[in-house]
Protein backbone atom coordinates (compact mmCIF):
# COMPACT_ATOMS: atom_id res chain seq x y z
CA UNK A 1 0.00 0.00 0.00
CA UNK A 2 1.43 3.36 -0.94
CA UNK A 3 1.60 6.35 1.32
CA UNK A 4 0.10 9.74 0.59
CA UNK A 5 3.72 10.87 0.19
CA UNK A 6 4.04 8.68 -2.92
CA UNK A 7 1.02 10.10 -4.76
CA UNK A 8 1.93 12.38 -7.64
CA UNK A 9 -0.63 15.15 -7.22
CA UNK A 10 1.32 18.40 -6.83
CA UNK A 11 1.85 20.76 -9.78
CA UNK A 12 5.21 22.33 -10.57
CA UNK A 13 4.00 25.76 -9.44
CA UNK A 14 3.15 24.48 -5.98
CA UNK A 15 6.42 22.54 -5.82
CA UNK A 16 8.24 25.75 -6.70
CA UNK A 17 6.47 27.57 -3.86
CA UNK A 18 7.16 24.78 -1.36
CA UNK A 19 10.85 24.43 -2.23
CA UNK A 20 11.81 27.95 -3.24
CA UNK A 21 13.23 26.52 -6.48
CA UNK A 22 12.32 28.07 -9.79
CA UNK A 23 10.21 26.03 -12.19
CA UNK A 24 13.14 26.21 -14.61
CA UNK A 25 15.48 24.64 -12.04
CA UNK A 26 12.95 21.89 -11.27
CA UNK A 27 12.68 21.10 -14.99
CA UNK A 28 16.48 21.10 -15.21
CA UNK A 29 16.70 18.47 -12.47
CA UNK A 30 14.20 16.42 -14.46
CA UNK A 31 16.32 16.81 -17.62
CA UNK A 32 19.35 15.60 -15.63
CA UNK A 33 17.33 12.52 -14.57
CA UNK A 34 17.35 13.37 -10.87
CA UNK A 35 13.58 13.58 -10.50
CA UNK A 36 10.78 11.76 -12.33
CA UNK A 37 7.41 13.51 -12.28
CA UNK A 38 4.37 11.88 -13.81
CA UNK A 39 2.44 13.63 -16.56
CA UNK A 40 -1.29 14.20 -16.71
CA UNK A 41 -3.17 13.56 -19.95
CA UNK A 42 -2.70 17.24 -20.73
CA UNK A 43 1.06 17.02 -20.11
CA UNK A 44 1.11 18.75 -16.73
CA UNK A 45 3.91 17.56 -14.46
CA UNK A 46 2.72 16.01 -11.19
CA UNK A 47 4.99 15.57 -8.19
CA UNK A 48 4.69 13.78 -4.85
CA UNK A 49 5.67 14.93 -1.37
CA UNK A 50 8.63 12.55 -1.66
CA UNK A 51 9.63 14.40 -4.84
CA UNK A 52 9.48 17.69 -2.93
CA UNK A 53 11.79 16.26 -0.26
CA UNK A 54 14.06 14.89 -2.98
CA UNK A 55 14.25 18.28 -4.71
CA UNK A 56 15.25 19.96 -1.45
CA UNK A 57 17.96 17.34 -0.96
CA UNK A 58 19.23 17.87 -4.52
CA UNK A 59 19.27 21.66 -4.05
CA UNK A 60 21.26 21.30 -0.80
CA UNK A 61 23.80 19.03 -2.49
CA UNK A 62 24.12 21.46 -5.40
CA UNK A 63 24.69 24.33 -2.94
CA UNK A 64 27.44 22.23 -1.32
CA UNK A 65 29.17 22.08 -4.72
CA UNK A 66 28.09 18.69 -6.03
CA UNK A 67 27.40 18.27 -9.72
CA UNK A 68 24.25 16.60 -11.05
CA UNK A 69 26.18 13.59 -12.37
CA UNK A 70 27.73 13.08 -8.91
CA UNK A 71 24.31 13.16 -7.28
CA UNK A 72 22.94 10.67 -9.82
CA UNK A 73 25.96 8.37 -9.36
CA UNK A 74 25.61 8.53 -5.56
CA UNK A 75 21.92 7.64 -5.86
CA UNK A 76 22.67 4.68 -8.10
CA UNK A 77 25.14 3.34 -5.53
CA UNK A 78 22.57 3.71 -2.75
CA UNK A 79 19.95 1.90 -4.85
CA UNK A 80 22.35 -0.99 -5.51
CA UNK A 81 23.15 -1.27 -1.80
CA UNK A 82 19.44 -1.34 -1.00
CA UNK A 83 18.87 -4.05 -3.61
CA UNK A 84 21.62 -6.18 -2.05
CA UNK A 85 20.13 -5.66 1.43
CA UNK A 86 16.68 -6.61 0.13
CA UNK A 87 18.02 -9.79 -1.50
CA UNK A 88 19.88 -10.75 1.67
CA UNK A 89 16.79 -10.17 3.80
CA UNK A 90 14.62 -12.24 1.43
CA UNK A 91 17.21 -15.01 1.57
CA UNK A 92 17.26 -14.94 5.36
CA UNK A 93 13.47 -15.00 5.53
CA UNK A 94 13.26 -17.80 3.01
CA UNK A 95 15.84 -19.82 5.02
CA UNK A 96 14.13 -19.10 8.33
CA UNK A 97 10.74 -20.19 7.03
CA UNK A 98 12.12 -22.95 4.77
CA UNK A 99 10.72 -21.35 1.60
CA UNK A 100 12.10 -22.67 -1.67
CA UNK A 101 11.69 -21.07 -5.04
From TrEMBL:
Protein name (Swiss-Prot/TrEMBL): HTH-type transcriptional regulator TnrA
What residues form the membrane-spanning segments?
A: none
Statement: the UniProt record of this protein carries the keyword Zinc: no
- Lineage, top-rank taxon, reads Bacteria
Xref: InterPro entries: DNA-bd_dom_put_sf (IPR009061), MerR-type_HTH_dom (IPR000551), MerR_fam (IPR047057)
For the HTH merR-type domain, which residue ranges apply?
Answer: 9-77
Provide the alphabetized UniProt keywords: DNA-binding, Repressor, Transcription, Transcription regulation
Does the record's keyword annotation contain Repressor? yes
What SUPFAM superfamilies does the database record attribute to this sequence?
Putative DNA-binding domain (SSF46955)
GO function term, MF aspect, one = DNA binding
